[in-house]
Amino acid sequence: MRWELLDRPDFGMVRVTFEAAGEQLLVEAAAMVARDADVTMKTSLAGGMFAAARRKLLGGETLFQNTFGATAPGQTLYVAPAAEGDVECFVLDGSAAIFLQSGAWLASVPSVSLDTRWGGARGFFSGAGLFLLRCAGQGPLFFACYGGLHAVDVGPGDYVVDTSHIVAFTEGLTWSLSSMGGLKSFVFGGEGLVCRFSGRGRLWLSTRNPAALAALVARHRRGG
What is the DSSP letter of 163? Predict the structure, then answer.
């Protein structure tokens, strides 16, 4: 299949063109924008009840997934995330996995496996969710975020990121949680907690933080 990322970074959308009958794409529930009429759609608990429930409860993904299949070459499918923002494609080659924050997964081919991994207490305090979604296998993987996506190649040396802006990172990077500066900076500086990444790999950051937007709206809400 071929794909094109459209309308980035504000209102990202993916256009997939199937090159052969039988090609399939697994898509987050309610993410389809449009498709050729002859493209089939099947809704299921991907991986079975236990695996789907684990992704729902621990990884922040929907319980059900839609599988779209081509019945002829040249058919197209458009998918987009629920929130306005950017989309990205990462092609897995089977040699290493990629970790996504809770809710970032948008779509992938069936040869890419999705599994949750315990993020430990660090994940809880980071705001990235209790669990990370581990994606492995071969083929294209699409993920999204609120705001724009910015990729950083880490290594040699460490790299520090505000926890609320982490979207994805490749296997080979390790991370630890810390506060920015001392107690005064943590309480009054507005930066909160940061992650220190080390090793070698790629890291994707979001240019906007939905929690910060919610806090801003709440401050200006009438009667709030």
Answer: G
Cα separation, 40 vs 38, in Å, equals 6
pLDDT at site 142: 98
**Model pLDDT for residues 111-149, shown as the tens digit of each residue:** 999 887 656 555 555 554 546 889 999 999 999 999 999
pTM surpassing 0.70?
A: yes
**Amino acid at the residue 128:** A
Grouping H, G, I as helix, E, B as strand and the rest as coil, residue 194 is strand
Residue entry with tokens 């294209």: 140
Distance of CA 158 to the CA centre of its chain: 23
In 48-148, DSSP assigns E strands to 65-69, 76-79, 85-93, 98-100, 105-108, 112-118, 131-146
All structural domains of the chain: 2-220 (3.60.160.10)
